[in-house]
Amino acid sequence: MSISEEKKTAVPLEKMKWMYSEMVKIRYYEDQMVEVYSEGKAPVFNIGAGTVPGEMHLATGQEPAAVGMCAHLTKEDTVTAPHRPHHHAIAKGVDLKKMTAEIFGRKTGLGKGKGGHMHLFDPAVKFSCGGIVAAGIPHAAGAAMAARMKGTDAVAVAFIGEGAANAGAFHETLNLAALWNLPLIVVVEDNAYGISVPKKASTSVESNDKRAGAYGIAGAYVKDNDPVAMYKASEEAVTRARDGQGPTIIEIETYRFLGHFQGDPELYRDKEEVPGLRQQDPILKLKKQLLDSGMEDAEIEKMEKAAKQEVDEAYEFARNSEFPEADDALRDVFTS
Ligand SMILES: Cc1ncc(C[n+]2csc(CCOP(=O)(O)OP(=O)(O)O)c2C)c(N)n1
Ligand SMILES: [Mg+2]
User: Which intervals hold domain Dehydrogenase E1 component (predicted)?
Assistant: First the structure.
């Protein structure tokens, strides 16, 4: 079964403005992170040193997937995200100050500084993420099942990379989610690579929405990293899930402007690839649409300024927060 033809309904201006402002916030957040992450890691790149120790996976360029979907969600809906989670977390409304403090390893962080950037949990908006590829899919199915058992109309969305769609957990979960008609949506962000492996070297189908047919569920494909098309595909999928009509797989063609992780030498792609991709920046495209719809430059600038201020305040909060005590290491964790 395939999702119906793209609806021609217009996206409400308020939603367009929200998506733009969130995309600017995400982009600026990650641009700041590039700088902060490099602090203390020179002269020879030392991944364990600096203000933000550990790996860092940024989603610069992939903003449309997160904002197009989260525009339809409330804090009662669940989102699970993978190792590249900042765009989803921000669009879902995770507390930006506590998120940044967590990434900085500070006591005021979402997980008291013990999780870092791949382990952000915010129960207030039902958001979680993790570094185990594909693990968020069954977690989201569990949340979808809980919503169904409680009789609410909440939905659950698992964001994953296209590489994760080849994991057993993807197929096992979708089989049961289809069988049990769960309000689950899996959003596959096809950024063309799983680390250095191109999609065509790992995936038997051209796009993962085709795999929906194997489970008798709906599938949708969003091309060109288009936030408005993502908004529309997500609207259909969320409506379907809330109405008790079961799961959907959405694949979005998206672009990763940065390396797999910060410090990635990117030897697997042509040096011309990224400048070419940046020419198709989805933020600039959406800005043009806002201007075409009659918004003034000054109003757009005001939105950009507000989004950036929120980010600056979050970084300031994180920097000024204390580190956990050594004695805290074994608190709030499972011990045998
Ligand atoms: C179960 C598991 N296997 C391998 C890894 C190592 N790993 C981290 S990211 C990644 C590639 C993921 O690719 P994709 O799903 O396309 O996401 P992207 O990084 O492109 O966002 C792999 C193999 C892991 N974290 N978990
Ligand atoms: Mg990928």
Answer: 54-325
Backbone φ and ψ for 67, nearest 5 degrees, come out as -75, -35
Residue 327 lies in a domain: no
Nearest CA to ligand 1 atom 13: 194
Distance in Å, CA 264 to ligand 1 centroid: 14
6 found inside a domain: no
pLDDT (tens digit per residue) in 140-182: 999 999 999 999 999 999 999 999 999 999 999 999 999 999 9
Range of the structural domain that residue 151 is part of: 13-256+268-318
| Helix, strand, coil percent values for the chain (each to nearest 5) | 45, 10, 45
First-to-last alpha carbon distance for the chain, in angstroms, is: 48
Query: Measured on CA atoms in the order 104, 95, 224, 140, is the torsion positive or negative?
Result: positive
Question: What's the gap in Å between 321 CA and the centre of ligand 2?
Answer: 34
The number of domains in the chain is: 1
- What CATH number did the domain enclosing 151 receive? 3.40.50.970
Q: What is the rounded average pLDDT of the residues 188-215?
A: 98
Using most ligand atoms within 8 A of CB, pick from 55, 62, 83 the residue to mutate for ligand 1. Answer: 83
